[in-house]
Specification:
The protein is an alpha/beta fold. It is built from 16 helices and 16 strands.
Amino acid sequence: MTNPINIKVGSFAASSSPVSTPSSIHDHFRHVRRHEHEHVPRVLHPIDNEDIRVLLLENISLDAVQCLRAKGFHVDHHTRAMSEDDLIQNIGNYHAIGIRSKTKITANVVKAATKLLVIGCFCIGTNQVDLPAAARAGIPVFNSPFSNSRSVAELVMAEVVGLSRQLFERSYELRTGIWNKQSKGCWEVRGKTLGIVGYGHIGSQLSVLAEAFGMRVLFHDIVNIMPLGQARQVDSLATLLAESDFITLHVPELPETTNMISYSEFAKMKKGAYFINNARGKVVDIPALIDALKSGQVAGAAVDVFPFEPAFNGAPFDDQLNAWASILRGMYNVMLTPHIGGSTEEAQRMIGDEVSQAVTRYLGYGSTFGAVNFPEVDLRAITAEQGTHIRVCHVHKNQPGVLKQVNDALSPYNVEKQYSDSKGEVAYLMADIADVSRRDLNHLRDRISGTDANILTRFLI
Ligand SMILES: NC(=O)c1ccc[n+]([C@@H]2O[C@H](COP(=O)([O-])OP(=O)(O)OC[C@H]3O[C@@H](n4cnc5c(N)ncnc54)[C@H](O)[C@@H]3O)[C@@H](O)[C@H]2O)c1
């Protein structure tokens, strides 16, 4: 295998005289580079060396396809989702599957997935997968919850400016043939106060963008967070509502955040404030928002997420879905968008990178770091010079006595490092052991996979 770091080491050696003790900063880096190869991670392979087959559905980004093929996996790429029946017929041939939100991985699909090792959700949510069923079958599920934070933050800035300049009203009027040039009620955002509710991945990105526009930023969060730039955390939601010209929500949907903005919260806002929700539909009581808009308490709103959203493009957004839909659609000071906050080419590419790397790390190194349904276990890499080390990846039922059985089996060898964790019914142990012969390997595998708590045992060499 070619190793880029080794190539660099070679070129350094050719162009410089040997340096035994680093004397300048340049010498120091040369010295460090010379020794880097000692810590180069070894590429691991499954012991049975079966060709890994990956099924990608729903037009997952071609970058992800490339990334997985570059690892030597066989990838079948389909543009559409598969029905449960089709999945049940096909999934038995694959070790990994990549889906987006339309493909449902039900318990029946998991049952038919006899070779499946890992599921990659190339999206934010994972409720299209029966997560407990996958975990019980020893299959970790990975997603990409934060790849689109920047995209959402940028849309919010567009909405802040759009609301402040009545962009949608003017655009609508001109489309209907009405020229209405006016400055009354249109404002610059510079010097105005943006109140961010939830200062996580999106809220904090937005904070930086808003300050670059010359806005003053306040935020409210249930945890104390180090503010970025000149932003300031306020002591309560009520303070934030009272002081902000624009209020934007970036909290998760939880029982505590359901309808967190309702009649009394709108009443606490400055008269004529603007309101933006790109978080989750159920966080806002929409009839209360409609009242606040009608009375002028809120001057305008942007809403990207709704309690109930159509399942596919082209489906109606009407009163059958949400009882107030037609009222909201008829209000010109409301910007309505179909949950597109995170929908950009960049976010899709980042999702593709992140999930394909998580899938690859699990298949090649056993790491479950970032899995949503599984204990998160990872080990420092086995390095290139540790040629006889092997990695044991053992998924088992979370019950007493398992570690004793496994450690009895490992006890004749030097266990270089080991880590295990559990989540619900499932536990996962990773161990790197030294100097195991090929014959011992088969014996060891039979012994560990023969324990009654065994769900899945893989050896990587
Ligand atoms: N519109 C879209 O397309 C789109 C895209 C991505 C994410 N989202 C949604 O945006 C929201 C935020 O995403 P994120 O990635 O920034 O999440 P995050 O987990 O990084 O941040 C959420 C923040 O909210 C805080 N929080 C939780 N409960 C709170 C409460 N009751 N009061 C105040 N703060 C509270 C948390 O402490 C955390 O700091 C989520 O609901 C997510 O689903 C929407």
